[in-house]
Amino acid sequence: VHYLQCFQPFFAILNNGTAIIEKAGQWSNYKDRVVEACQGYQIIVWDGVNQLKYDPTSTDQTQKVYPRTCIGLTAEGNVVAIQVDASYGNYGLSLYHAAQLMIEAGCVSAEGGSSTYAAREEGSDEFVVLNNPVDGAERTISNGIIFVSTAAPTGVFDHAVIESEYDYYAPKTSAKFTATGVDA
Hints:
With 184 residues, this protein is mostly beta strands. It has 3 helices and 12 strands. The chain has a 5-stranded antiparallel beta sheet, covered by helices on one side. Strands 2-1-3 form a 3-stranded antiparallel beta sheet, with no helix packed on it.
């Protein structure tokens, strides 16, 4: 991991709690202070500026519309993370448009790439892929970012998660719904 991050951009949390995004070649400046790190694919925003040019005729991977995950930092040091799916044909983002989205979210630096998004949804004990990865299925990865809630279960009802087999319903139709109670 240390070797790879010498030649790739990276997102890291330092031992003082500060989050950083750095360009390739900067690992040695931080490696002794890093608590957690994730190698990135490409810096897409730097000093508040989109680092990519828009060219819809290009076949470059950065111009193709795919599911995308990006992580960025605001000037105040807040972490911003987005995941955009590409469920239906051309929906999704090019990295150029992902960078624009991160800038609109207030990021002064960001990196991004392709995406596999998985989670344990409310009311479930199962960890599942929730997006439609570009290859059609979850793929083997060498690293990733995991967000974990540190909230302890209370066992006290807070709200219900209501689910059904369908997302949309026509008037005067019937559907089966299930409700699962979850704590905060």
